[in-house]
Amino acid sequence: MELSISLPGLSLFLLLLLSAMAAPPMVAGIGINYGQIANNLPSPEQVVPLVKSIGATKVKLYDADPKVLCAFAKTGIEFTVGLGNEYLAQMRNLDRARAWVKNKVQAFLPDTKITCIAVGNEVLTSNNTVLVESIVPVMENVHTSLVELGLDKQVTVTTAHSIAVLETSYPPSTGRFRRDLTGCMTKVLDFQCRTGSPFLINAYPYFAYQASPKQVTLDFVLFQSSQGILDTSTNLHYENMLFAQIDAMYSALSAIGYKNLTVHVSETGWPSKGDANEVGATPENAKKYNGNLMKIVSQKKGTPMRPDHEFNLYVFALFNENLKPGPTSERYYGLFNPDGTPVYSLGIPAKDGNSNSNTTSSGGSGGGSAIWPPPPNGYLSITSSSGRTEPAGASVVLGLALLKLFFLYRIY
Q: Is 226 a domain residue?
């Protein structure tokens, strides 16, 4: 494809290259969410060198933007494309689903490496009956279309869930799905077991901290050195909240007979700016969260409950997006400004181990840890809702968290 760039565009292109080269390299194998709710982002052609230079090998879209898919042709970067919530009702028609797969997926293969289709986003917690009733039929239609086109071996079909699908998550070994969602969730899981797709969750420890900063330890959510938490039911030691969230989901899956499904984190991140009441939304905390997160990914360790499974995730997000609705934080999750300059230096440690001494990984058991349950003024439940607002039409449920104190629950 022939590329034409104007003089101002060329200047931005060069700035993106120089800025990306100056930024610390991202850990190989990590994914990035590429949202586009903004009016000042660089063109997809200009984003390609930025994504490649930071070492990201996977990109997740909230749609199937043809400009992006064309721009990333023959780069080898894997793509998850999104079929937005707003399209689910009409995609219950197999002919329409087939046409969508042909136009949005098949048309770009094999040059663009599309490996997954995310149908909807946080549908089960949307409180939208039409969406909930549509999710499995649409996943079936999309998969059937892939089979008919001979693409089902290279492209999987899944959907992303909010952590709020959990009724209990405290401690991780007691993770259970909400009883009102179990019926629909089981149908989704049956489909995924049959087709071999990963179980996706959007997990944001930030929301648990923001909802109750006096009860949630900041070091625990930022992967900093802390006493951690001991789940006495399993004797597993947790040094960060994200791993506890993931293992709570594994427990919930196992409890209803799906222990062999693999959990991937489709979104996680930390805002660098927020409103006055958005405690913790600072560049310093965002740098610690994402920098320490990437260090853990580079160690190729799993969670305490799944130590042999590599940590698979997509950071939210590539850019700050100035048109996103909601509180200020929603517009400041990006690793990069629209001009391509880093929002903050990630300070990713070198592989030789010369790194922050206060950064820790999770796994195994250890002494000196807090244990479950906590004292009455103790720890906020790890269950929270991400509330992402992207073109996929995700529901906006901000700052939800469940606090379990002994046998009582309060909803924040």
A: no
β-strand pairing of 113-121 with 78-83: parallel
Q: Is residue 391 situated within a structural domain? A: yes
Q: Domain containing 140: what range?
A: 26-214+240-361+380-401
Residues noted as catalytic: 122, 267
Structure tokens at 128: 């939208």
Distance from the Cα of residue 288 to its chain's centroid: 17
Q: What is the phi-psi region of residue 407: left when phi exceeds 0, alpha when psi lies from -120 to 50, beta otherwise? A: alpha
Q: Which residues pair with 384 in a beta bridge?
A: 401
CATH number at residue 171: 3.20.20.80
Report the distance separating Cα 237 and Cα 59, nearest Å.
32
Within 253-292, strands assigned E span 263-268
**Domain count for the chain:** 1
Please report whether residue 373 resides in a domain.
no
Q: Is residue 194 part of a domain?
A: yes
Long-range contacts of 374-378 (CB under 8 A, 24+ apart): 374/405, 376/405, 376/406, 377/215, 378/215, 378/405
Digit-by-digit pLDDT tens for the chain (412 residues) are 434 444 445 455 455 544 444 444 444 468 999 999 999 999 999 999 888 877 789 999 999 999 999 999 999 999 999 999 999 999 999 999 999 999 999 999 999 999 999 999 999 999 999 999 999 999 999 999 999 999 999 999 999 999 999 999 989 999 999 999 999 999 999 999 999 999 999 999 999 999 999 989 999 999 998 888 999 999 999 999 999 999 999 999 999 999 999 999 999 999 999 999 999 999 999 999 999 998 888 888 899 999 998 888 999 999 999 999 999 999 999 999 999 999 998 764 333 333 333 332 233 323 333 434 333 222 334 444 444 444 433 333 323 333 332 222 323 3
Using a 10 angstrom Cβ sphere, with 0-12 exposed, 13-18 middle and 19 or more buried, the burial of residue 387 is buried
Q: Is the pTM of this model over 0.70?
A: yes
Phi, psi torsion values for 230, nearest 5 degrees:
-110, 120
